[in-house]
Amino acid sequence: MSFALLNPNVMDQRNFHPESLMMTHGYKPELSEGAIKCPIFQTSTFVFKSAEEGKSFFQVAYGKREKEPNEELGLIYSRLNNPDLQILEERLCLWDQAEECAVFESGMSAISTVMLEFLRPGDVLLYSKPVYGGTDHFINKVLPQYGINGIGFTSSQSLEEITEMVKSKGAEDKVKMVFVETPANPTNTLFDLEVCRMVADQHSRNEDKVIVCVDNTYMGPLWQHPLAHGADLVVYSATKYIGGHSDLIAGAVLGNVSLMKRVRTLRTFLGNMTGPWTGWLLMRSLETLKVRMTKQAENAEKVAGFLQNHPKVEKVYYLGNLMPGDPQYAVFKKQMTSAGAMLSFDIVGGEKEAFSFLNNLKLIKLAVSLGSTESLVEHPATMTHSDVSEEDRNLLGISEKLVRISIGVEHYSDIIWDIEQALAIDI
Ligand SMILES: *Cc1c(COP(=O)(O)O)cnc(C)c1O
């Protein structure tokens, strides 16, 4: 047994954990003067060794011939490919066990590119409510101008109720994509991805498969892997946990080879890939992704515990508080490996009390965005979700007393101290 472990061939076969591969995977030092780290390939174009090589690279890039076994796409031009992007994409694939990844200049460009690629005039997009404000705007204000309409569903609707709603709108033959954001921001409401898959399959016609696309920004890529629960595509705002330092904007899409070929091709012609510098920063971020997110989740549990018993707090929205017997608990257990580091709470009072709390914090910063090393706090009803209709805000529990916190990597006792002193101030 011990002999087998020492056998180098056996050692070669170990499936390393993603966090063990974030520093080295996909990078060959010998191609960069032995540099331990992948340099920033700050270049627009790449020199071909010969005209024949240039021709051969283009044949693959433009789909005129298939890649030979083990052939890598030659470097041509940074809108098509660049080492910082390619290596980053290979590393991102490891967390979600995806076949392919494409990185984008923002989460919104990742999301809008997927929608533009897989939807055509006359099609209907089914989407979970609430979705990120930018996504909501794209679905309800931009896509209708191209003849594409969205129908929203909430987590309280069953498979039958969703199907019935689609039918009553005469859309049963028009659904081409189910777009899901779970947990839903800012209340941490969960959607069952298995149910979303069933909705998609019910509306699929032979070859015309309805695509399930999941925005996994809130939980990923560490705590939830939608591809393993029936999703076809996963999208990220890499601005959040993946970037993790509030210093860049980026996005990513992951999925199988055939779907990603379409996503990548549209990216090439929209030209909304990320630049090499951002790609390099994201590779640096990925090295600490697991330690950052693990610490953030540990801190969140402590903060949630503190808020739970505070007299000025009416209700805490934290996944770790779900109880067995609650249908949401079953979805949580099935889909996630952690309660995450995003929590919200209803403060006793209304906007005035919420604003006083926000204005009196000393350590935690008042800013939108999430998933970064520093804790961030905001007021969804007047900030991130102010564009959501009042009817939907009431339906989804986004009230004036709701405050959202993204927990960072600070010492948990300092975060709690700050919350405690800001809550203590009477107005
Ligand atoms: C921030 C965010 C987006 C948009 O990403 P950008 O990088 O800001 O374009 C999309 N979805 C969710 C859930 C987000 O939090």
From TrEMBL:
<dbReference type="GO" id="GO:0030170">
    <property type="term" value="F:pyridoxal phosphate binding"/>
</dbReference>
<dbReference type="InterPro" id="IPR054542">
    <property type="entry name" value="Cys_met_metab_PP"/>
</dbReference>
<dbReference type="InterPro" id="IPR015424">
    <property type="entry name" value="PyrdxlP-dep_Trfase"/>
</dbReference>
<dbReference type="Pfam" id="PF01053">
    <property type="entry name" value="Cys_Met_Meta_PP"/>
</dbReference>
<dbReference type="GO" id="GO:0019346">
    <property type="term" value="P:transsulfuration"/>
</dbReference>
<dbReference type="InterPro" id="IPR000277">
    <property type="entry name" value="Cys/Met-Metab_PyrdxlP-dep_enz"/>
</dbReference>
<dbReference type="GO" id="GO:0009086">
    <property type="term" value="P:methionine biosynthetic process"/>
</dbReference>
<dbReference type="InterPro" id="IPR015421">
    <property type="entry name" value="PyrdxlP-dep_Trfase_major"/>
</dbReference>
<keyword id="KW-0663">Pyridoxal phosphate</keyword>
<dbReference type="GO" id="GO:0018826">
    <property type="term" value="F:methionine gamma-lyase activity"/>
</dbReference>
<protein>
    <submittedName>
        <fullName>Methionine gamma-lyase</fullName>
        <ecNumber>4.4.1.11</ecNumber>
    </submittedName>
</protein>
<dbReference type="GO" id="GO:0005737">
    <property type="term" value="C:cytoplasm"/>
</dbReference>
<feature type="modified residue" description="N6-(pyridoxal phosphate)lysine">
    <location>
        <position position="240"/>
    </location>
</feature>
<dbReference type="InterPro" id="IPR015422">
    <property type="entry name" value="PyrdxlP-dep_Trfase_small"/>
</dbReference>
<keyword id="KW-0456">Lyase</keyword>
<comment type="similarity">
    <text>Belongs to the trans-sulfuration enzymes family.</text>
</comment>
